[in-house]
Predict the structure.
Amino acid sequence: MEYFNKIIEDVEKELETNVENGLKSKEISERQEKYGFNELEGKKKESLLIKFLKALCLNQYATATAQPGLAVNKIEQVLIPLPPLAEQKRIVAKIVSVLAAIAGESKV
């Protein structure tokens, strides 16, 4: 599949196409049905939960090296940083305000 190393005529022949005229609509439909759309798969985004768990550096609590695992008593020792309650309430109020603005209910 190293088309960049081949001459155009060879690539055209191998892919059964023509760089001047392209493919006919029928051929496009048939190829899309057979091979799918010509799209690159994007890298999957990490969920916020995964990012949060990675930030906790749980590896330091692993109980083994060959098949690492987390024991319940070790997990119970993990401290999860939270802002003070007043700050949490301020954050929630801001989120509610922004969501209302997005919905067109008010201005931020």
Remarks:
- The mean pLDDT is 85.
- The chain has five helices and no strands.
